[in-house]
Amino acid sequence: xxxxxxxxxxxxxxxxxxxxxxxxxxxxxxxxxxxxxxxxxxxxxxxxxxxxxxxxxxxxxxxxxxxxxxxxxxxxxxxxxxxxxxxxxxxxxxxxxxxxxxxxxxxxxxxxxxxxxxxxxxxxxxxxxxxxxxxxxxxxxxxxxxxxxxxxxxxxxxxxxxxxxxxxxxxxxxxxxxxxxxxxxxxxxxxxxxxxxxxxxxxxxxxxxxxxxxxxxxxxxxxxxxxxxxxxxxxxxxxxxxxxxxxxxxxxxxxxxxxxxxxxxxxxxxxxxxxxxxxxxxxxxxxxxxxxxxxxxxxxxxxxxxxxxxxxxxxxxxxxxxxxxxxxxxxxxxxxxxxxxxxxxxxxxxxxxxxxxxxxxxxxxxxxxxxxxxxxxxxxxxxxxxxxxxxxxxxxxxxxxxxxxxxxxxxxxxxxxxxxxxxxxxxxxxxxxxxxxxxxxxxxxxxxxxxxxxxxxxxxxxxxxxxxxxxxxxxxxxxxxxxxxxxxxxxxxxxxxxxxxxxxxxxxxxxxxxxxxxxxxxxxxxxxxxxxxxxxxxxxxxxxxxxxxxxxxxxxxxxxxxxxxxxxxxxxxxxxxxxxxxxx
Amino acid sequence: xxxxxxxxxxxxxxxxxxxxxxxxxxxxxxxxxxxxxxxxxxxxxxxxxxxxxxxxxxxxxxxxxxxxxxxxxxxxxxxxxxxxxxxxxxxxxxxxxxxxxxxxxxxxxxxxxxxxxxxxxxxxxxxxxxxxxxxxxxxxxxxxxxxxxxxxxxxxxxxxxxxxxxxxxxxxxxxxxxxxxxxxxx
Lengths: 584, 186
Ligand SMILES: Cc1ncc(C[n+]2csc(CCOP(=O)(O)OP(=O)(O)O)c2C)c(N)n1
Ligand SMILES: [Mg+2]
Description:
Chain A: It holds the Pfam family TPP_enzyme_C. By secondary structure, chain A is of the alpha/beta class. Chain A has 24 helices and 20 strands. Chain A is about 40% helix and about 15% strand. Chain B is built from five helices and nine strands. Chain B starts with about 25 loop residues before the first strand and ends with a strand. Classes of the chains: A alpha/beta, B alpha+beta. At the A-B interface, α9 and β14 of A face α1 and α2 of B.
């Protein structure tokens, strides 16, 4: 059966066929025909944002918490350029998104028409792939291909630029089943010889460690289940990057906590001292490796990644395995069991003893106060009071983000949404709305810093309009805290423009939006205030006034290896050399 | 072969590759990249090189299969073995790239470049230019009383050598196509 329809109708039809239930967007001249089609149907919900950057972060929150691609619709010119930060954010963190942008009609392209921007040119390095569709006959097929590209292999954002005349013109709709998915079929099955080598190493390693990342989450729930099996069967210790939190439960006995620049002492020292490192879906980011030359000097390394370019990009590995985490882990487990499920028991026992000594350092210990709320304490209480609830956490970027990663425990994947690779302030609030839209009944909390939160606070209007009862838990230190911390450590305590002045009254701001505002500055009131936030049936802006000069520890200063970690204030004098200061 | 399906043995992504990838010595490599002939595909490839700080020493591109919409991009690049491997892997990630071949690593290859030289002069210099052109098997494709245009095909080294000889004889302009390359044998 061939169906004739306009390009605009094709867009909506293709989205329906792809199982899309929600689109985050903002209208404008170049997408009016598509908005007209959205108006005339009820299957797809449209969430009207307040700024296109917000739409993309919402779609990211939606995607990360569901495993499904997030969909965004924006107009030409400023609509598309406003979406750019979100696209790069999704690219860096491998989040599947399909972004549709309007464009001036084909006959006007290149004439500097009103609201014309070279959107495919601008977004080429910001997307996994993008298309300018100049012919309505190719539109539906392109949309189906776009979903395939966004979600297969290493996921990422894609963009389709659709000129207005293409939306008006009529052509034949190509259904999903008839779409050519071209050659784009990334390899998912690992090389059996490499898997065998990894298994052999697992059998003899004295000091193994599993170093996991966002790839485990992206590979789907089966990957997390297999990972848990692998840990349970081998008794290997496991750590994770910021992006991978929750794929192994924080309550699991083999959990060492997050690694990296603000990671746990035991995790970083185990990475430094291991003799076998098994990287599963992580990418040796510079926040993880510290000084590359001294990174885990005595280990053999295996790396499982679906993206061949991740392998040997930063750290040379001994056993590269290109493949999907789920498929590779399944094979690794099968083969390892078939060969007798052997590990080096004596070695492991010594290794765990060593790890216990590192754990005993209690690197997250902080000096609490009964007068001011310590940010760490606020998160400890938030954790205690929300444990066991159907809870999702998003964050902004800064100290609060690192403390959230350290002090909140994640038992399952897809429960933790944070901007890792790009570190985008302004991510958390819109992301929390995207999560809430996908999980209307869940408790969704954005752990925020006051400065980051202001960057996209207009989206509170979206939360109100669409009844998304998101909780904005703002750790307000009246500082660009992370910047201030670096200035303290690296720039002689010259706090150049790193404080938040003229802050709004957050409670009044909440009232202005029509939601609830809560302010808390006394540690004794904190539990009640948090409970009030949780119980309130609607969005809440929680202004939690915390200690202003708290530093986030542990910290591996830029340019230092893992074993030169700072544990607390006492360690900070003159630590970062001139060389480290040029690094970010 | 799919874009991300890496042929075993052809790149260092095999665990059993014997090349010394730790070497810090820069090497020149010729890459053949088969791409979908679509708008923007060249920008994707070039953008990758500029965005990630890789070198392009020479670049040629043309459609090679009209019905299959395939173009062939030949890039001569330089870098340490690790960088060359990264370039290959990064190219393989581009959705419109079908195949990436490192012709330098995969075995002997034929490399050819076409160049045009405008040489102006009179008297002995003019005669000497013509004599050298014959030795180099360059063709005269345009001549006036005071100038020649020579056309020559050869390896980049041969073209460089000819240009060096023409310089003192009145070389005014050179146009080069960049390298086209094919691996030897079937
Ligand atoms: C869009 C953007 N601009 C600048 C930065 C640099 N930056 C990183 S953390 C930070 C301060 C964040 O302050 P706040 O949100 O209050 O969090 P805190 O560190 O105080 O917890 C800044 C400016 C960034 N990450 N993103
Ligand atoms: Mg702050």
